[in-house]
Amino acid sequence: MKNFVEELRWRGMIKDMTQGAEEALSKGCMSAYVGIDPTGDSLHIGHLVSIMILKHFQACGNKPYALVGGATGMIGDPSMKSNERNLLDEQTLAHNVECIKKQLGRFLDFESDAPNKAELVNNYDWMKDYTFINFTRDIGKLITVNYMMSKDSVKKRLSRDSSEGMSFTEFTYQLLQGYDFLYLFEHHGVSLQLGGADQWGNITTGTELIRRVLGKEAYALTCPLITKADGGKFGKTEKGNIWLDPERTSPYQFYQFWLNVSDDDAQKYIKIFTMLDRETIETAIAQHLECPERRSLQQLLAKEVTIMVHGLQEYENAVAASKMLFGKSTSEDLRKLDEKTFLAVFDGVPAFEIDRSLLPSGILDLLAVHTSVFPSKGEARKMIQQNGFSLNKDKMNDIAYSVSDKDIIDGKYILAQKGKKDYYIIKING
Fold this sequence. Notes:
The protein is an alpha/beta fold. The chain is built from 20 helices and 15 strands. Strands 1-6-5-2-3-4 form a six-stranded mixed sheet, sandwiched between helices. A five-stranded mixed sheet has the order 9-15-14-11-12, covered by helices on one side. It has a two-stranded antiparallel ribbon with strand order 7-8. α4 (90-104) links the parallel β3 and β4. The longest helix is centred in the middle third of the chain and has 16 residues, at 173-188.
């Protein structure tokens, strides 16, 4: 069995550890948890670092707990930039939790009979009936305001939002998160909390509560916040987050995100976001450095993460879709794409709309009268005769061809291609 701390260390996944954590981990099976905000019904790749730490934790023989913050998620963490969050109703919360558990099942073993199978817990279960009076009496008296003010998460929020200040609700977030750790320590034997570096203050408030209430030792381990080599925020694109839910971010778009990371980022991400062993990764990096223009490291990274999140079939579909623009794909390959992937592959190409009643239509009329793929019938005729035009990835050299319903992809689209790189979508309405 691999050593958990050593495994994280060579992967660059350790930022801070409390004293005694490494020694405690070396003594055998431990239980640890990561907190996840359930304010949405999907995780995004910003959550992946903590999830991968839990995955390594379980792979090293330990027992992982995923805590969805049904209670704390209603408040908002002062280390975050977002405003205070809206109160979720129980039905929405239950839906979000179920969706998140399904996604986590891609990474963690929740179902087996193994003694270290993963557990999902929700702090709403133990907070919903805890009265304010009892909480302030039992917990509030144990942690001083001075202690809470000293935390970086509080300092940063106050300095950033000096004009608006910080609400009492947000200020108490670290007490609530600290109580989660105390509760899990007492009821589930969880003695280690894992998380991002921005959570260090909240996590250590939990270890302090456990020490003051129970006189026992608990531990914290955090990973660095992941950034891009150019200083940009990891996981953010022009269109927003990269989600694990295929309905929000298609497997093709997900695959493309990893395929397009920089060389420097690929060398870092391959260690953090895959389970490949050290020898395999070091060999892959060395091969990449010999011939970086092949982008073999990005291809390996995209393969491993896409299969882990979406499965082998979706990975193969994403690879096939990626070849659509630049590879030797066929009409058959094109017709296999679902609508979402089709639109993602050809995102940004010029598009035209015509009414279905115009079909059947002569190919020259379609391209130069009903649309302006070509400025004139003469130019369309010339390119078709010179074998430079494709319809739905099939070469077209018949200027008398009649375009009909059989040429429509997914009931809505026709793909026109001039030369090797100029694509046009013709959407059929009605």
